[in-house]
Amino acid sequence: MGKYQLDNKGQQSVQKFHEKNIGKSDKQLKLEAIKAQYLNKKKSGKK
């Protein structure tokens, strides 16, 4: 277990915080995939 022990209210707030951060990382991954697709299309268009 961790250094600090949280009560029920504290555990819920930590869980909400982690859920929000995970959502952001998924958005970043999607943007990177879209950017890679765009660059590939752009490269193939010039050739």
TrEMBL record:
Q: According to the UniProt record, where is the region Disordered?
A: 1-22
The protein's name? 30S ribosomal protein S10
Q: What is the lineage of its organism?
A: Bacteria, Bacillati, Bacillota, Bacilli, Lactobacillales
